[in-house]
Amino acid sequence: MDIKRRVLQLLGRAGMTPSEAKFYLTAHRNPKLTIKDLQMKSGLSRASAYRAYENLKELGLITSSQENWRKNVETVSLRTVAEKLAKEQRRLRKVELELQSMGDLMGLTAFSHIEDPVEIITDQNLIKEKAFKILHKDWEHFVCYGSPERLIDVIGEDEEKDWVKRRYKMGKSVDAVMTEVGDYVNYILPTCERDLRNVKICLDKENQDYCSYIFDDEVVVWHKDKNLGNRAIVIKDPLIARMQKNMFQETWNK
């Protein structure tokens, strides 16, 4: 197979229409021609050539002179096309993962009577703000399940230490099942009694990318994802919160 045909195939697999791929490759091999010249060289109809030009320009894959947009058409390099495609693939992968996550959450809250049972917070300042707002909820005891290492990744170690101090001063206690033992766990274990914290260790590699706070009638999942970044997933449905508490209690009793 010759190079031209292979490049056209690859551009098609990358998402270009046959007309766009043919126009791009013709412009790439014949820089600074007019659209009309490129139309004639590519064998495309006038309408197809102009449509391909507009689409490729919108994608940032071709440029033309500012004085006359019909003249001096040039393309970005194939390497740049590859880089743009790779960036777009990463973006789409992130969207895909987010949609999968949202699908799981929608399934979890499918029968909720609350209009917006799930809130996802991604802004780091708002994540921290949410953490400290929890302290002013109407509860005296809450339960925690997951990895404290991920918790400090999401909230911040200094913020978490400050949060614990405030919780202790307010007389609010916690039962915690920790699925991972790392530096932060080793730091807090000696002070559990002082900090009103009851701890059980249950090593679980499948549940080490998040830490859940279950309190009052709400659940907050502090989640660190390599693709999606840091998130606070707030589940506001009291029924789901009660279910999570029951599941926690079963684990705690075991």
Question: Gist?
Answer:
With 254 residues, this protein is of the alpha+beta class. Helices cover 51% and strands 18% of the residues. The protein folds into 2 domains: 3-76, Arc Repressor Mutant, subunit A (Orthogonal Bundle); 109-253, Endonuclease, Chain A (2-Layer Sandwich).
Spell out the blueprint of helices and strands.
Elements: H1 3-13, H2 18-29, H3 35-42, H4 46-58, E1 62-63, E2 74-75, H5 78-108, E3 118-121, H6 124-134, E4 141-146, H7 148-155, H8 157-169, E5 173-178, H9 183-188, E6 197-201, E7 210-215, E8 218-225, E9 229-235, H10 238-253
Parallel strand pairs: 4-5, 5-6
Antiparallel strand pairs: 1-2, 3-9, 4-7, 7-8, 8-9
Helix pairs in contact: 1-2, 2-3, 2-4, 3-4, 7-8
How would you characterize this protein structure?
It is a single chain. This protein has 254 residues and is an alpha+beta fold. Helices cover 51% and strands 18% of the residues. It has helices at 3-13, 18-29, 35-42, 46-58, 78-108, 124-134, 148-155, 157-169, 183-188, 238-253; strands at 62-63, 74-75, 118-121, 141-146, 173-178, 197-201, 210-215, 218-225, 229-235. Strands 3-9-8-7-4-5-6 form a 7-stranded mixed β-sheet. Strands 1-2 form a two-stranded antiparallel sheet. The termini are far apart. The mean pLDDT is 84.
For the structure shown, list the relevant keywords.
Arc Repressor Mutant, subunit A, 9 strands, 7-stranded mixed β-sheet, 18% strand, alpha+beta, 254 residues, two-stranded antiparallel sheet
